[in-house]
Amino acid sequence: PRYFALIPAAGVGARMAADGPKQYIDIGGKPMLRHTIDAFLSSALISHTYVVVSAHDGQIDAVVPPGAVTVLRCGGASRLASVQNALRALAGELGEFDWVLVHDAARPGLNAALIAKLIDAVGNDAVGGLLALPVVDTVKRASMAAGANVPAATSSVARDGLWLAQTPQMFRYRLLCDALAAATDASVITDDASAIEAMGFAPRLVEGHPRNLKVTLPADIRIAEMYLAAP
Ligand code: C5P
């Protein structure tokens, strides 16, 4: 089978309070997205890497290594739309049973070992799967009472069997297209696996690593830098 990487990088990074889109923030001397791309380029298992950016993106050409990856300028209003548009654009290049590893640009700590671990564990599966981490904290359900300044816990959710989804999330091209086409609410379908689950399939969970964190808040940049400096 062939394995392709698809990196949605069309977000605006609203929570980062940075000047530009967060995928271009400097992490240890390289734009975040370049670290993410390099993880796939360093894996011998990946046939080709595609990056999805918005049509107005003016920075991407300075970031991608020439010839090594394909840039698709068809980003949408949500991650879901960006991935869907990209998959549509690849209809002529990918076969029904080719694997697609969808990976957030905002997870620059991915490396070849994690990619290999996921492919080894899931490459023979009928459905596919994703990197994820078991929840280690106690999880609270909370609600905000009228007039309160902070939310209050109403119960604790047993953390047994709870996982935090990371990416890559790998599924076969046709199944992923069908699942995303059936997804309508981008606020509920926040990753690829949730669209697959909504079809009634059960994606496998493969233990990831904290280095594969999603850079979301300014402090995450320092954590990512630390992991990338000590591979
Ligand atoms: O915003 P968040 O960190 O959840 O975004 C996850 C990934 O989805 C990022 O790599 C971001 O660039 C991408 N994205 C996208 N198109 C959007 C929104 C987010 O490709 N419209």
Describe this structure in words.
By secondary structure, this protein is an alpha/beta fold. It has a single domain, classed as Spore Coat Polysaccharide Biosynthesis Protein SpsA, Chain A. It is 28% helix and 24% strand. The chain is built from 7 helices and 11 strands. The protein has helices spanning 32-41, 60-63, 79-89, 112-122, 173-182, 192-198, 218-229, and strands at residues 3-8, 26-27, 30-31, 48-52, 69-72, 99-102, 128-134, 139-143, 152-157, 163-172, 204-207. Strands 5-4-1-6-10-7-11 form a 7-stranded mixed β-sheet. A two-stranded antiparallel ribbon has the order 2-3. It has a two-stranded antiparallel ribbon with strand order 8-9. A hairpin with an 8-residue loop joins strand 8 (139-143) and strand 9 (152-157). The radius of gyration is 18 Å and the shape is globular. 39% of the residues are buried. Cytidine-5'-monophosphate (C5P) binds next to helix 3. The site of cytidine-5'-monophosphate has 17 residues, from helix 3.
